[in-house]
Amino acid sequence: MLTAASRNIPSWTTAVPVLALLALVPTWGTKPPGAILAVVGVLLGGAVFAAVHHAEVIAHRVGEPFGSLVLAVAVTIIEVGLIVTLMISGGSETDTLARDTVFAAVMITCNGILGLSILVAALRRHVAEFNAEGTASALATVATLATLTLVLPRFTESAPGPEFTSGQLAFAAVAALALYALFVVVQTVRHRDYFLPDEAEADPEAHAAPPTNRETITSFALLAVALVAVVGLAKVESPAIGDAVSAIGAPASAVGVAIALVVLLPETIAAVRNAARGRVQTSFNLAFGSAMASIGLTIPAIAVASIWLDGALVLGLGSTEMVLLAITTVVGALTVLPGRATLQEGGVHLVLFAAFLVLAISP
Known about the structure:
Elements: H1 11-27, H2 34-62, H3 66-90, H4 97-125, E1 128-129, H5 132-151, H6 166-190, H7 213-247, H8 254-276, H9 280-305, H10 319-336, E2 340-341, H11 343-361
Antiparallel strand pairs: 1-2
Helix pairs in contact: 1-2, 1-7, 2-3, 2-7, 2-8, 3-7, 3-8, 3-9, 4-5, 4-8, 4-9, 4-10, 4-11, 5-6, 5-9, 5-10, 6-9, 8-9, 10-11
């Protein structure tokens, strides 16, 4: 959440999205030299942070758990835009990009963000406390979505390889969207109290005055500008990302990991910041909400986009990734069900995240 002093829109969060959008105009559809790519990269990173800042302003206006939902959806829109633009221009080399990016998002949120949040909260307060009912429901939804969309394609027989048929893809897309929509209703209407931070009373920033209507509308407009700039500049940077991945000898799937890391970095910072204030439930809402949005919104969007995309849409995970997903689900359940976690649980999740990164570079 933003304090009353910091919620006013800083000048850089206004200037950076506009500059990024202006930089997109001359670089779109070109292959700029290294110096220009460096500037584009800086503007891209700044636009991502600006987008999340404006999402936080809007989130503070609508309150929790709507605030976490706004952040998760904003980040997912960036992710979907990046995936679609890269798949349109990448040809057969991007057949697995959607799968790699979505799986990376799940590993980053359910191990990286979750582990860091627990670690920071436990270091400050010895034990990280949160609502077991809401968090367990979120984890169950993430596990189901991941299994339906990323595991089942490996075992279906109607289409060759780890792919869905058109009918199966349509079902997976509708099921993913329906599960995500159902969770949003449960989180924001039916059982909203399951997702509210118990520590809010001890956090003075929770009582900061919300942004005015004018500030909220301004942030909404700048958020839209930042999202457009991020998607466009990522398209400009995509050849350089691919070259960097090849230069270190990593497989093509590492491109999806790089995309997810860039997109989720501001979300990670927001979650850790909340954990440091004792708002562990908000950190978990951000982590699991991003994982659910990544699957529940990306897969339907990619399913629609596949109508116009050339080549196959490979969604099925390999055996190594399925093992990582399975142990993440089991460990996650053991972590969230007690409603309390210590440094040990945080360390376990961070080790799983480190294993994911190592295997992504050297499978």
